[in-house]
Amino acid sequence: EVQLQASGGGLVRPGGSLRLSCTASGSSLDGYAIGWFRQAPGKEREGVSCIRTSDSRTYYPDSVKGRFTVSRGNAKNTVYLQMNALKPEDTAVYFCAADPRGRSSLFTWSYDYWGQGTQVTVSS
After folding, report:
1. Separation between Cα atoms, residue 23 and residue 39, nearest integer Å
2. Contact assessment for residue 46 and residue 120, using Cβ atoms and an 8 Å cutoff
3. Which DSSP category does 67 fall into?
4. Pairing mode, strands 46-52 and 33-39
5. Pick from 70, 67, 46, 43: which is nearest to 59 by CA?
6. Residue 75: what pLDDT?
7. Nearest to 35 by CA among 93, 102, 83
8. Cα torsion for 107, 64, 13, 94, to the nearest 10°?
9. Mean pLDDT per 10-residue run, the chain (124 residues)?
10. I want to staple 49 with a disulfide (CB 3.0 to 4.6 A). Which of 6, 36, 75, 86 is the partner?
11. DSSP one-letter code for 101
């Protein structure tokens, strides 16, 4: 069973950048899909990116397309989320999740394994 740990959150000014990391242990990520999600206070958890490790295809909702980039690290057990041009509305707790079936999905129900969240706050 894979265990995930998200890290890299923090406080950043509007327009700034952050890179989040999702590090896996207990299992190789080969064949998995890794999703990044966020949840703001009082809101539902929403998907902000997905990468299929089988072919490195990536998916984003319109709200972050062109600003967020998901990638797999050279070590293969880490997935990154590069977030640029951050806005106050990007403020949320960010989670990474793993789907062992490797589907391309931005829906929470597709994912079996979840890491703990990391807080991202965008504020001046």
Report:
1. 20
2. no
3. T
4. antiparallel
5. 70
6. 79
7. 102
8. 10
9. 96 98 92 97 97 95 97 90 98 97 94 97 97
10. 36
11. T
